[in-house]
Write a structure and sequence with these properties.
Blueprint lengths: L9 E3 H11 L4 E4 L6 H10 L2 E4 L3 H15 L3 E5 L3 H16 L3 E7 L2 H5 L10 H5 L5 E4 L6 H13 L5 E7 H5 L1 E3 H7 L14 H12 L4 E5 L1 H5 L3 H11 L3 E3 L19 H7 L2 E5 L20 E6 L13 E4 L2 H11 L9 H22 L8 H14 L4 E5 L2 H9 L8 E2 L10 H12 L3 E6 H7 L3 H6 L4 E7 L28 H6 L4 E5 L2 H14 L3 E6 L30
Parallel strand pairs: 2-3, 2-4, 4-5, 5-7, 6-7, 9-10, 9-11, 11-12, 12-13, 14-15, 14-16, 16-17, 17-19, 18-19
Antiparallel strand pairs: 1-8
Helix pairs in contact: 1-2, 1-7, 3-4, 3-18, 10-14, 12-14, 16-17, 16-22
Length: about 575
Amino acid sequence: MDTATTTTNLTDGMHILADALLKNGINKMYGVIGIPVTDVARIGQGDGIRYIGFRHEADAGNAAAAEGFLTGKPGLFVTVSAPGYLNGLAPLKAATVNGFPCIMMSGSSTRNIVDMGEGDYEGLDQLNYAKPFCKAAYRIDRPEDIALGVARAIRAASSGRPGGVYLDLPGEMLGATMDQAAADATLFEVVDPKPAMIPAQASIDRALDLLANAKQPLVYIGKGAALAQAEDEVNAFIEQTGIPYLAMSMAKGLIPDDNPLNSGSCRGATMRGADVVLLIGARLNWMLNFGIGKAWNPDVKFIQIDIDPTEIDNSRQIVAPIVGDIKSAMGLLLEGLKKIPVKAPQAWVDSLNEAKKVNVAKFATRTEADTVPMTHYNALGAVKKVMDMNPDVYLVNEGANTLDDCRDIVNIYKPRHRLDCGTWGVMGVGTGYAIGAAVTTGESVVSIHGDSAFGFDGMEVETACRYNLPIVFMVFNNGGIYRGDFENIGTDGDPSPLTLMASARYDKMIEAFGGVGYNATTPAEVEQMLTEALAAKKPALINVVIDIHTGKESGHIGNLNPVPVKGPLAPKPTA
């Protein structure tokens, strides 16, 4: 046989990777590319994967995490080696803490040079650095293992409590070749990557018994319920039991915010009064005061649904744990109501309704005011009017006061339509989340930022313009971190550590990239400009000028700031 005329149909790691991703329905990739993953993106794009190129790896990671939250399937982002990889670790960790399924793929340097410490280009032991930041981390050393590595990443990111997974892709592996037919034989689709975990019936009966005997029951809904896409079951349970509920910020809209059993406008009174609380996808971490202290009824008993048994009794006793996935658990609770009926006492519901009336009236004086310069309240009151008319629009939100006040003022009517900094409290997630939401859903997004938070990721407005995404960015500009009136207590003449530029025109920034800029100074202008920008379905940015004196330090978590014991900022002595 003449071997000179024999040809072999070869492929390489980059093509196999694209095939393995597409085989499993992963058809979007966010990232910042360069050596050694440049052609990972180009080949993926050529094979049908939509590539969204960012200006910073953290923003690409946040976009992928947003996709994971919105779809329940892992979003994917890619980075270069070493410095780019390190930039991706923060969103990978945030996705893991938040419970968002997300996969980070990074190119890496030559293994033997890194392991011997010989000083390779961007050499770093990326696999081991990643492990504390994610649910799982894998290195794929051979092209024949690519499909298996992708499958393991999908299953780890999706199953149990979802989270971030790291895939290490050495450059030599990406360029390695193998026979096309042999490569095709390695490809497969993951079967049932997030299997249901059915709770024990005894745990369901125990929980219902506790609720049936409660005098002041409460349901607290967290973003885990939104991620589980359990809105039908949760709505039915609230409707049948009549139990008042509270929703964590990213659970807003799972039940429409205008539901009469929503007790968000008297959250403090509800928590202090509740004697039995059912937690659905919410954890007793810092966001809920760990279930202890002045925020809660000292005799409160908790029922907690969680897929992770180690979360039970994490910070205090859980009297009735339900270990399993939320959708299955809620289905069993609904079925159990036929045997153990539960109905919230009317006196409890009436008392909360009275408290809500008082608080709503007080709040309206702030949100409907015509005060100029604007405050967070009346500027967001104008936003609320527009969002109420556009319930399909997704809302992204970050900042301190901008975040806290927006959560309280702007209603959400559909599940998974609000994204914010979440459990880890990270700023600089907004533009990435907004781009991820727009790319994933194809719907319009309003992305509301404090001026400080926008500084972390504002360059991504160019990305929004480059891909012509229907995002309206809003920068609430009060000239500082928290607010703009802090003074330098030293003598060097520099601005305070918290001072930014109140005169900044953030709207001009998007105009440089072809977007539409607006400068709003009154509530009426906010309402008119946001309405116009949404109707255009083009990238836009509204610079919302608010009073430099508005806002409180650290928003609602000022208690986490250490207080100086001496000097100009120390508490004044009392007489």
